[in-house]
Amino acid sequence: MKLIITEKPSVAMEFAKVLKLNTTRKNGYIEDKDWIITWCYGHLITMSYPEVYNEDLKFWRLDTLPFIPKEWKYEVISGGIQAKQFEIVKSLLQREDVTEIYNAGDSGREGEYIQRLVFMMADPNPKAEMKRVWIDSQTEEEIQRGIKEAKDLREYDSLSDSAYLRAKEDYLIGINFSRLLSIIFGRRIAKDINEEKVSISVGRVMTCVLGMVVAREREIKNFVKTKYYKIIGNFGDDESYFKAEWKVTEKSKLYNSNLLYNENGFKKEENAKKFIDTLKDKKAIVTELKKSKQKENAPLLFNLAEIQNECTKVFKIKPDETLEIIQELYEKKLVTYPRTDARVLSSAIAKEIGKNLNGLYRNFKDEEISIYISKMIEEKFSTNLVKTKYVNDSKITDHYAIIPTGQGLENYEKLSQLKKDVYKLIVKRFIAIFYPPAEYNKVNLSLDVEGEQFNSSGKVCIKQGYLEVLKNRIKNEEEKDLDILTNLKKGQEVKVLKYETKDSETSPPSRYNSGGMVLAMENAGKLIEDEELREQIKGAGIGTSATRGEIIKKLERIQYIQINAKTQIITPTIKGEAIYDIVNKSIPDMLNPNLTASWEKGLDMVAKKEIEPQIFMDKLEKYINSKIDKLVLK
User: Fold this and answer.
1) Which of 16, 111, 283, 549 could form a disulfide with 21 if both were Cys (CB 3.0 to 4.6 A apart)?
2) In 19-93, alpha helices (H)
3) Is 453 helix (H, G, I), strand (E, B) or coil?
4) Contacts of 591 (CB under 8 A, 6+ apart)
5) How far apart (Å, rounded) are the C-alpha atoms in residues 283 and 450?
6) Once rounded to an integer, what is the mean pLDDT over residues 192-197?
């Protein structure tokens, strides 16, 4: 017999359908002639609390810290369906007639961890061959391929090592530092925030995210707005004119002047007006005129962080809600695996991409999407993606970007409106990559008024290209009419209509919203607005694509942050700021995004076999010991 273990019952049912098994459930599994399929309910096994090692550890005392087990203890989650299901899975794993065991858990680090814990506790039949099914979607073809090409489970041992270390790291930092800070500072915080008792919760990623929120809030509160004054000139005639802005240059009379706030603004309005007086009746000559055409390609595809950010902006929902929705779309075969960091496709998938498009065209009864795909067919847009920026094998680790499978569309009408909208967001981003680039005409102009420079620029969209699908082109009223600028010539004198001052002021940084926070976590604490730049500098982030939304949710649940339901803007609570101050005083590097990202990088190196697991563990133990020694000895 061949035994398959999936992470959820719904996934087991899909495997059963693909294998054409009798899908009548027995007690926690399905069995047919050659196959048995069973499932977990997410985690069935958990790490034991300290008091399981020693009853005295139930009480929080400094003399019991640090707590670092030499032999780790695990236990079945009690009091629910998990314990019952574990016994079922265990009995199946131990059956003597089972000759092949397929780990078909979610294809990622956490999915690997869930199943490995079960294997560790269940003691499977030692004669059985252990295999790993790794799939990118739950379509019939992909499940069939995953089973057919299942690899020896040992090939994923390094991923398993990384998963175990991640859990141990979170456990050790959470238990040791939460107890340490609660014992030393708990009463003080309780008094400061008028609560009877406070337990300080510390986490490897959670505390760092809290630090980002509080630091940003204080930056905003301490920000002092500075007003300054720009000079704008109107040039042309009464029927057709354009605006140009003054900027100081080396030729300017005010070069290095202390009257200026910056290169294009005065500290005082009166000085700006005096300067305008010196320009009256002076000729304005065109000194530079650059005309160009600009092409702009569709953005890269969605990874989880990008779609979470987009859904926060468009639908005002939290990142964990977005993940839940896309997970459901994945389980209904509509999209590929959601917990991905990649924004590109593999070359193998790119060669087969016509299947996804054909599935959408034939089966997705949505008028808007049908129009977009019909235009692709009529105008013969290329679907050969292999040499484009949307395909890059080197930028894919476990999974490629989130795209529609072109299948599962029989489930679409049963979805709620929000889930339909999220699905269409993914479909549009996917279709856009096949459309031609948007094209713009651009003009950059410089004028000289007796050594003083005024600049103007304009940009107009002449071909929508992919913007036709994504509907985010610049609005007409915001575009400049380039006619007057394009008709000018270098050396030409332009009539000056008037000069005026324009009030400006410096702006504080903006608060994070929940989607923006996920992006900042992905980029190790940097909130980078420019999409292309984000992709270029992306490295080790804080947390993983699978956990970032949950971390934000936990911070809100324990009342360290609050999230505005309408805007999704994040602000710290009084308690959150108090915790931040304690951590900043005692273990400040826990607030450092670069340090937190370096731990994540270390886990990634273990998964890639670049370092041995024990090296990571030794560094972790050394770090915990040093921090506790420092605080206890103070």
Assistant:
1) 16
2) 50-53, 81-93
3) strand
4) 207, 208, 210, 211, 215, 580, 583, 584
5) 7
6) 92
CA 248 from centre of chain? 40
Spatial distance between the Cα atoms of 49 and 74, rounded to a whole number of angstroms: 9
Nearest to 408 by CA among 142, 167, 153: 142
Long-range contacts, 169-175 (Cβ 8 Å, 24+): 169/204, 169/599, 169/603, 169/620, 170/203, 170/204, 170/205, 171/47, 172/66, 172/67, 172/68, 172/620, 172/621, 172/624, 173/202, 173/203, 173/204, 173/624, 174/201, 174/202, 174/203, 174/204, 175/50, 175/67
The two three-digit tokens of residue 345, written as one number: 């496709």
Could you identify the residue written with the tokens 């397929």? 102
User: Residue length, the chain?
Assistant: 634
- Per-residue pLDDT of 95-152, as tens digits, reads 999 999 999 999 999 999 999 999 999 999 999 999 999 999 999 999 999 999 999 9
Tokens of 247: 């900027």
Half-sphere exposure of 16 (CA within 13 A, CB side): 23
- For residues 197 and 585, is the Cβ–Cβ distance under 8 A? no
Helix (H) or strand (E) holding 519: helix 514-522
Helix 593-607 × helix 157-192 angle, to 10°: 160
Distance CA 54, CA 45 (A): 20
> Which residue intervals of 364-458 are DSSP H helices?
367-378, 417-432
Tens of pLDDT along 343-358? Answer: 999 999 999 999 999 9
Locate tokens 């609005």: which residue? 475
How far the first Cα of the chain sits from its last, in Å, is 62
Residue 358: partners with Cβ closer than 8 Å, 6 or more residues away: 406
Q: Is 476 a residue whose pLDDT tops 80?
A: no
Query: Which two structure tokens, joined as six digits, stand for 396?
Result: 């894919």
Model pLDDT for residues 259-300, shown as the tens digit of each residue: 999 999 999 999 999 999 999 999 999 999 999 999 999 999
What secondary structure letter does DSSP report for 137? S
| Full set of structural domains in the chain with CATH | 2-149 (3.40.50.140), 163-222+511-632 (1.10.460.10), 227-297+442-505 (2.70.20.10), 318-432 (1.10.290.10)
